[in-house]
Amino acid sequence: MNTSSLGKTLGPVSLQDRIRLQLEQDIQDGKLMPGMAIDEKAVAASFNTSRTPVREALLLLSVHGLVDIVPRTGIYVHKLSAGELVAMMEALGELEGVLARLAALRIGPAQRDELLRALGGTADRAAAQDAAGYQQANAVLHDVIYRSSGNPFIVEQAKTVRMRIAAYRGRLFERPGRLNTSQAEHEKVVNCILRGLADGAAEAMREHISAGGKVFADLVLTNSLR
Description:
Blueprint: H1 4-10, H2 15-29, H3 40-46, H4 51-63, E1 67-70, E2 74-77, H5 82-106, H6 109-127, H7 131-149, H8 152-169, H9 178-194, H10 198-221
Antiparallel strand pairs: 1-2
Helix pairs in contact: 2-4, 2-8, 3-4, 5-7, 5-8, 5-9, 5-10, 6-7, 6-9, 9-10
């Protein structure tokens, strides 16, 4: 684990928080996959510390449903059931629908330009059929909408859900035709936001997340995600 850049970007934070944030990032990036055991001793060694702050960080991750602490067995990255996955996609659709609605009402001139640039980024990656690049550009676009909403509390809830399902969502954009469909959905969302159509933006975003959820459910039901 590389913690030097993490410390620079986060500023003065406790060691426990640094460990927690690094583990969260590793889970989100897929370095720690669902069901994978977490070696408490190795984590402590990577941070040149005792196991105490590692245990504290893992307890917090357990509270947030990211890891399972099994007595006398070990600590594992939480593996979501199919039902949990589908439920979280539904929750994400509602949360992001609200954020899109607020963005349509509150977006400023600078964020309008940023949103258009982000849409251009997803368009480029869709045209190139670059699934990995599209996933990154997609995250940028949604982040602009998050910030444009002006509601950090709802943003935090949406990011928590996204983090919990991140390891499962990576293959969504590999499905044939999904990049182009997703881009068309993005264009509808962005158009509504820029025109100040709050209800339209909310509905377009819910449809966008719901469409991804249907693809997602198909992957789960066909055992494509392991």
